[in-house]
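Good morning N.,

You mentioned wanting to compare the apo and holo forms, so I went ahead and generated the holo version with NAP. This is what I fed in:
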Amino acid sequence: MTSTDSTHTVLATVQPRLYLGGQWCPAEEGRTIPVHDPATGQELASVADASVADGLAALDAAAQAQADWAATAPRTRADILRTAFDMVVANTEEFATLITLEMGKPLAEARAEVTYGAEFLRWFAEEAVRVEGRYAVAPDGRSRLLVHKRPVGPSLLITPWNFPLAMATRKIAPAVAAGCTMVLKPAALTPLTTLLLTQVLEKAGLPAGVLNVVTTSSSGKLVSGLLKDPRLRKLSFTGSTEVGRRLLADSASSVLRTSMELGGNAPFLVFDDADIDAAVEGALLAKLRNMGEACTAANRFLVHESVVATFVEQLSSRMAELTIGPGIEPGSQVGPLIDEASREKVHELVEHARRSGAEVRTGGFALDRAGYFYAPTVLTGVDPDARVCREEIFGPVAPVLTFSDEDEAVVLANNTDYGLVAYAYTRDSARSMRLMERLETGMLGMNVGAVSSPAAPFGGVKQSGLGREGGREGIEEYLETRYTGFADPYA
Ligand code: NAP
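and this is what came out, ligand included:
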């Protein structure tokens, strides 16, 4: 089969409709949204464009299914997730092709996303049967205290476009495990992977109404309609800090439980005692995974002044050697950015840095070809107040700054409203401990360029978010704690 054949086959497999109460339906008003390939700019497919009424129909279905789903045996919920895990893994190539087509990342990275994304299904299959409470004798020795967990209830899950499979499974799997029903709204730019995942969950035996999926070009209106509805009990959002802030404000009126996975501005610290070769490898991973379109992407490289020349030389020459091209082509190492607006913003940040005195060591331009490609770029002599250091770049651009001692490195690293992740390279274990305590981030990669793991609590502090996804903490976001006090059984 040629790659064009496999592209057609995978696109033809996707149900481009809304999934409401176990039925695949067109949008109420019959409208559709086109989905484009960022490597060519061409239309790949179109999906249903849900109205506010469609969103409410999805919530109707979720609300109706909630009681039965909460009463379903944890083992049954676990088995569905485990079956879905096996099915996603068995269809790795199909999922990876779809991710690459609609999002742009190279196929090898898309396969890695399938492995990562599928793992949430397996992890939470294992967690579903381990929800526990506690029983205690009150301090006065008389009454008894019983604490148990209940599913929060119908949840709204909103996902971004950059990891269309993993961001969906990271929310769906713990919600299913906890016994919550849900309405999922994927990003309009990359809905196809989520629809294929929904088909898998349906085949794995997820009952009608547990998962409802709405694709829409009017997120603001549809979501605001749902947030006002008292049947909704939870919002889990992954996306930009700007939209997250607005949704938090809107959630206040009905006092919703919220989980917020927002933007980042990760510092990547290289100390004078670091293994520089390892630091360069880590930097390539932390910067170029997903073409830099990751909340965990290294946004600022802070390098000790005594090693900066070597680090920059190695990083620039490695970045300049990479093969840029459509992710679907074998050998492509850097794919396109998601759209023209994103590419323009990345270039604007580079130009602003240049005007503020930065030197471009490699890259610094958009490629003159179809699609939204941008050359991997290294900037030195960057002003810490330049926009490229303050804003989330979301592109393959590495601004390098220097520091002269650990205190200065920590101040620079913490000089941001964000606090998702930091990376640090040092051979000094006491320094590693100090950094663990002093860096204001929810996650820290110590001598590694990637931290994401389904078994670890993913999330940020400061304006990078609230709550955690993955790990033992992930299921807690979908559970509420209830307490019952019992009278003294001997009285
Ligand atoms: P975004 O513009 O905030 O969109 C995220 C999601 O919210 C999409 O589904 C989007 O739908 C929806 N949305 C947009 N405006 C909305 C509104 N007014 N009301 C309700 N929903 C709305 O973010 P993005 O550009 O897709 O994703 C990139 C951002 O996500 C970056 O900031 C990145 O750091 C962050 N991110 C964070 C994590 C994390 O775990 N912390 C992980 C991945 C990404 P439409 O597609 O229809 O606009």
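Residues 158-162, 167, 185, 187-189, 219-220, 223, 238-240, 243, 246-247, 261-264, 295, 392, 420, 460, 465 surround NAP (CB under 6 Å).

Happy to go through it together on a call whenever suits you.

Best,
F.
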